[in-house]
TrEMBL record:
Protein name according to UniProt: Unannotated protein
Matching InterPro entries: YceD (IPR003772)
């Protein structure tokens, strides 16, 4: 079953109310997401308005909700050598544990000590890695999705591994230029003299033509 995301403005926000505090429960669904903005790096990324299908599995565990998702997407950009358009198919995998909020744990006098212990354990875990938390009954997949996209994108996308790039002098693609393509290299210190000689030669040719 394909479901639309809950909000166009926040398409990665997932409702987990059916799983809260029910260890062992699981829900699977396919969610249709329209990206509200471009996602990626300067040279390549997923464009604004891209339609994505996310296969999502949510599992309720004692600590919170475990989210596992796979997403297929297409990134577009420019070749780092010749600036031609390029596209890259991305197979993204996300798996994150979303912990219950501390305030919920602390509700009820009998649970206060247990909640304090949990907080200490959480602080130790957070020292080693960044953890995600549920916001009430909502789970936000946007941060891990953004991380997954950036990690999957090539740092320097290429239209072809053998792309020769552009001529640094004229800016034309090498693949479109003849094998003997070259530019006369003039030392900047002699450039003014060369221009004067070129102008002088042109004037002499004009005088010769007139006298003839």
């Amino acid at each position: 079953m394909v479901l639309s995301s809950m909000s166009k403005a926040a398409p990665f926000l997932i409702d987990t109310r059916e799983l809260i505090r029910r260890p062992g429960e699981m829900r699977e669904s396919t969610i249709e997401i329209v990206t509200p903005y471009a996602i990626g790096i300067d040279v390549i990324g997923i464009p604004t308005g891209s339609q994505l299908l996310m296969d999502l599995r949510l599992e309720s565990v004692i600590e919170g909700v475990l989210a596992t998702a796979t997403v297929e997407a297409t990134a577009v950009g420019e070749c780092a050598r010749c600036l031609d358009p390029v596209s890259e198919d991305l197979d993204l995998y996300i798996q994150e544990l979303y912990l219950y909020d501390d305030d919920e744990r602390a509700s009820g006098g009998k649970k206060a000590k247990k909640a304090a212990k949990h907080r200490e354990e959480d602080e130790e875990m957070e020292a080693d890695e960044a953890l995600y938390r549920l916001d009430g009954e909502m789970l936000d997949l946007e941060p891990p999705f953004l991380d997954a996209v950036v990690l999957a994108l090539p740092f320097a996308p290429l239209c072809d591994p053998e792309c020769p790039g552009l001529c640094v002098e004229c800016g034309l693609p090498w693949r479109e230029l003849p094998a003997d393509h070259a530019h006369e290299m003039v030392d900047p210190r002699w450039a003014d003299l060369k221009n004067r000689l070129d102008l002088g030669g042109s004037a002499e040719m004009g005088d010769t033509s007139s006298s003839g």
